Amino acid sequence: MINIPKVKVGIVAVSRDCFPESLSVNRRKALVDAYKAKYDADDIYECPVCIVESEIHMVQALEDVKKAGCNALVVYLGNFGPEISETLLAKHFDGPKMFVAAAEESQNDLSDGRGDAYCGMLNASYNLKLRNIHAYIPEYPVGTAAECADMIHEFVPIARAVVGLSKLKVISFGPRPLNFLACNAPIKQLYNLGIEIEENSELDLFEAFNNHAGDARIPEVVKDMEAELGEGNKKPEVLEKLAQYELTLLDWVEAHKGYREYVCIAGKCWPAFQTQFGFVPCYVNSRLTGRGIPVSCEVDIYGAVSEFIGTCVSNDAVTLLDINNSVPDDMYEEAIKGKFNYTHKDTFMGFHCGNTCSSKLSSCTMKYQKIMARSLPVEVTNGTLEGDIVPGDITFYRLQSTADCILRAYVAEGEVLPVATKSFGGIGVFAIPEMGRFYRHVLIEGNYPHHGAVAFGHHGKALFEVFKLIGVCPDEIGYNHPASVPYRTENPFK
Q1: What pLDDT is recorded for position 114?
Q2: Which phi and psi (to 5°) does residue 181 adopt?
Q3: Can you tell me the distance from the alpha carbon of 136 to that of 163, in angstroms, rounded to the nearest whole number?
């Protein structure tokens, strides 16, 4: 995937000066060896300069990991650790940081070989709070070398998302369409996250598109589109315009991202887009999103940011769908009941006109946009990508600032069922345990819009930690409660 960071985690071991330094040295070496034996060695950097016991050591270690190009940090408590120096290291490191601690190795070495990092983690967490430092601490942050290596591996996609957000620019075009007020959320919270936003007029985009007429690169892009679509290319007459639009967006990104390294786009496709541009941009949006440049529909800025987070976490293409319609009774009875362990209320259809990339569709057809064609000439609605979404595990999620300007999020894991949708657009039959209650007490009660981001695979654990790490209050992160756990707003007498 392009447009996402490569994470390099600096591992710095710390030691309290009344404990043997060799404990931290040997345990750090064992941790690094365990990681390299199982995962990509390029993910990590072992800081050899010193074991941090003092503020002077802290400065030396900080300079070393910076020089090595590390953009994420693991503070490893090989023993109890120096609570001030180790948290100052986290404070002055510009990037995501993680704290993890060594478990004791053997009952045969609990004298000079006992490190007490189990205790030291408590003091570290207290000092992090004193200094207002957001650090990632795993669910159970004390482990053997192999266990800590696994924890660091789980930290990598979390760090990738946090690093990406800190260097992200959102490029938007046009105001939100009429009657899509739900996608118009206060953007102040995005600035609080360090994200830059460039809002442009559709007229600016239209001018740039017209300036790309006759671009010498268009035939090459058309050829690539033809190869991707194959027999699904039902509207070949629009490919040249779509290629022209794709080049317009890519050139805009390069010319406008400025000092930022990563970009996502909040685009618009109606009500005037079709008649003026002469097509709909869905297929182009799908192609860019499939490469790692998320493009949301209906100028959904928080949707685009949500997609970018999922791309970083999953290192894969994502999509943005309407939480759209219920599954008909006869479809549930015929294709789901008794075959899958879901109630009818656990199921729904996720849909959008055609922004899901071809690699995430069972088969695809590039054709006209059915909803728009009900009121417009078909020829100006060409350019949407249709097909049933591939079955398999998914995570539905979203970051959102609602009307009261509080940053909120939700995460729910489920799957796309191998059930034919018998409908149009990019669409799938989704199943999420206890979806009915989640729909009522998280989505409706939390005032979330109809757009939800979809990551392919189960990434709920990492997404939940990303949202916490960027400052979403854990109480504001919704999830699909099991039947035994009531929601705060759920009527106990129902």
Answers
A1: 87
A2: -60, -30
A3: 13
97 neighbors 74 (Cβ within 8 angstroms): yes
The residue length of the chain stands at: 494
Please report the sign of the dihedral spanned by the C-alpha atoms of residue 222, residue 226, residue 229, residue 231: positive
Radius of gyration of the chain (CA): 25
For residues 44, 48, 52, 58, the Cα torsion angle rounded to the nearest 10 degrees is: -80
Q: Give, in order, the Cα–Cα distances in Å from 95 to each of 51, 92, 166.
A: 20, 9, 8
More confident residue, 18 or 7: 7
Are 382 and 238 in contact by the 8 Å Cβ rule? The answer is yes
Cα separation, 353 vs 267, in Å, equals 14
441: region left, alpha or beta (phi > 0 left; psi from -120 to 50 alpha): alpha
Please answer whether residues 197 and 401 qualify as being in contact, where contact means their C-beta atoms are separated by less than 8 angstroms: no
Q: Render pLDDT for 207-249 as a digit per residue (tens, 0 to 9).
A: 999 999 999 999 999 999 999 999 999 999 999 999 999 999 9
d(CA 14, CA 58): 9
25-27-32 Cα angle (round to 5): 95
Task: Yes or no: say if 398 and 410 are a contact pair by the CB < 8 Å rule.
Answer: yes
User: Cα separation of 355 and 427, whole Å?
Assistant: 10
Q: Is 155 exposed, middle or buried (0-12, 13-18, 19+ CB in 10 A)?
A: buried
User: If phi over 0 gives left and psi between -120 and 50 gives alpha, with beta otherwise, what is residue 399?
Assistant: beta
Strands 407-416 and 477-479: parallel
Pick the closest to residue 32 from 76, 63, 81 (CA basis).
76
